[in-house]
Amino acid sequence: MDLYCVMGNPVAHSKSPWIHARFAELTGQSLHYEKRLIDLDGFETAVRSFAAEGGLGCNVTVPFKFAAAALASGISERATLAQAANTLSFKEGAIWADNTDGVGLVADIEQGAGIDLQGRHLLLIGAGGAAAGVLAALLLTQPAGITVVNRTLSKAVDLVRRHASLALLQKAELSALDLQQLNNQFDVVINASSSSLSGSGVPVAGSVLKPGALAYDMMYGPTAQGFMTWASEHGARARDGLGMLVAQAAESFFIWRGVRPPAQQVLAELRAAR
Ligand code: ATR
User: Fold this and answer.
1) Are residues 174 and 125 in the same domain?
2) What confidence tens digit (pLDDT) does each residue in 185-200 have?
């Protein structure tokens, strides 16, 4: 059977095996997808031995997305901009890296939440790996502008610089601010920071939300709850990242299998099962 996996550390709670098994079932594809816990210093060896075992591709999660982009023999433009990859494909001895997180986020906002991002004002909170993975895809929707805000301004500035040509092409204003400089309102506020993991509150004031704005946390489950509650209390529509998780998996599945799985159906099943 065609073999795939997700590599991470930790990886025990990954929903990817379930999601890909369900995609395979619904599209009539024959494959096996498993999770692999990888030693922190053993990622490259694990990838090469998985390919040698006959694996056809793998998803990559925390903390190996940067290493995945770095070891590839070929890399997509979106993964180059992100400097991170979540999808590896093994073909004829070569490793091809891509990043489907951004298209996953955009698909879930546009199709899942029903919001067209074109012409909107977006706020992206955070400038780490999660933010880097989605900025190019957000720019490709031709928003009016994207403000990247981060506790450490220099990281937001670097991220914005790297995406400046794409922003120009898309006629989208792209700027970096630190948390104290933020005083505008936005249609869509995306939390790509990991502040909730450290137990801190939402790093921006509720005044950034236009009435009825979409407030999106790229995490899901209990980790996203603080942001979702904050958003609802400030009159925004709150959405967690479960739809993004399914949509990025759907894009990886498409890269590997050439078939688009029914992501909305699988997301509805996951939500119902919680
Ligand atoms: P990830 O891969 O999840 O993005 P990361 O690369 O470590 O993880 O990035 C974490 C992001 O969350 C960063 O933007 C970080 O801000 P700094 O660049 O200033 O470190 C942000 N972050 C983490 N804890 C935070 C907190 N308590 N308040 C505000 N931002 C926080």
Assistant:
1) yes
2) 999 999 999 988 877 8
